[in-house]
User: What shape does this take?
Amino acid sequence: MVNTKSDNLTFIYHSVISVFCSPKPEHRVLPKKDLSVDNILIRKLKAEDAGDITRIYTAITNKSAKSDFWQMIEGYAGRDENGCFVAEIDGRVAGYIISYILSVGFGAERSAWIPMVGVNPKFMGQGIGKQLAEETFRFYKNAGIREIYTSVRWDSVDLLSFFKTLEFDRSNFINLRKVLE
Assistant: This one.
């Protein structure tokens, strides 16, 4: 059987879906239960949330977080100008969004960037990510920011769909990369 580009894309799509939608049972952070938006508290990120965020990240990606991941989260928590929030259910972190302001950069006006967003896989599809994003939008609108950017891998179908539902669209920027050897 010949392996075509279409076959590769189908494999990548199914791989991405299985990674993000089917976490290993030992990586689950919170028990599954019915919840309404009334049970969800959206609040600013605290340094002590780093452990829960690390566990959610690991459950989503099926990879261990790098050794400095915890410290990076704590660093974001220590800056009031960052729009970093967590969704809490019954006192436990169920999701997070990390964002920051970029004051200058290659023709862009002062803007915000979202490098990370994650929801415990047990609670995906229940509006938690949307609530986190909407709180982030309010935060930056109140700070006078008019544009928010993010960067998503082309094969991350679930993330692309998520940001599309939030009315993100292509920007005038292209991501460039250089591999250092």
About this structure: Residues 84 and 151 are 17 Å apart (CA to CA). The chain is about 35% helix and 20% strand.
